[in-house]
Design a protein that fits this description.
The protein is α/β, with parallel strands linked by helices and about 200 residues long. It is about 30% helix and about 30% strand.
């Protein structure tokens, strides 16, 4: 049964690892915002841990900010969080301030497409987990990232199982290879890199 959540009730999620382990982030109840589950995040950061010290990261559809801030917690030197929803961005700004991450995390209040169109920096790790309801967003984002050569090491993709064929085609088209994968229910979590 789906839990009814009042739209003005903030939700909480906990950072799993690193120096901020156990600290909570709040985020608004916004349609399409679904933070990466704790178990999936634990797996992801176990994969990424060797690559994160001093890394530059992009959390493209930041939402709760848990992926980007957990990367900062594990040792990333710079994290850019992109979020277009004003209320969600307000929570992100509060979390960055509360966790004293202002020297590591920067917040871009922008649509992911427009951000990618003007971004000229490459990132060691890019997190891409758009709302599942917008099927074209994942493809648009991955294409822009690859065409602009924004990924220098790892690309994390989180998507619904119904998009798996589309994502496989994307990897083939852009010369990316699947390094690690996990699933939780109908959600797929893939870590990919250039071939």
């Amino acid at each position: 049964m789906k839990k009814n959540v009042r739209s003005n009730t903030p939700q909480e999620i906990r950072i799993n690892s690193g120096r901020l382990r156990g600290r909570k982030l709040t985020f608004p109840s916004v349609e399409g915002l679904r933070p990466t589950l704790g178990r999936s995040r634990e797996t992801l950061f176990n994969w990424l841990r060797p690559s994160l010290p001093d890394a530059t990261c992009l959390d493209l559809f930041a939402g709760s900010g848990v992926l980007g801030m957990e990367a900062a917690s594990v040792g990333a030197a710079q994290v850019v969080l992109v979020e277009q929803h004003a209320e969600t961005a307000k929570h992100l700004a509060h979390s960055i301030d509360t966790l004293d991450l202002g020297d590591i995390c920067s917040l871009e209040i922008a649509d992911a497409r427009s951000f990618l169109g003007r971004c000229h920096s490459s990132f060691d790790v890019i997190f891409v987990d758009p709302p599942f309801a917008d099927n074209g967003l994942l493809e648009t984002a991955v294409t822009a990232i690859c065409e602009s050569r924004l990924m220098s090491q790892w690309l994390y993709l989180e998507f619904d199982q119904q998009q798996e064929a589309t994502v496989n085609a994307l990897l083939l088209r852009h010369g990316l290879s699947l390094a690690k994968s996990t699933k939780a229910g109908s959600t797929r979590s893939w870590l990919v890199q250039a071939q």
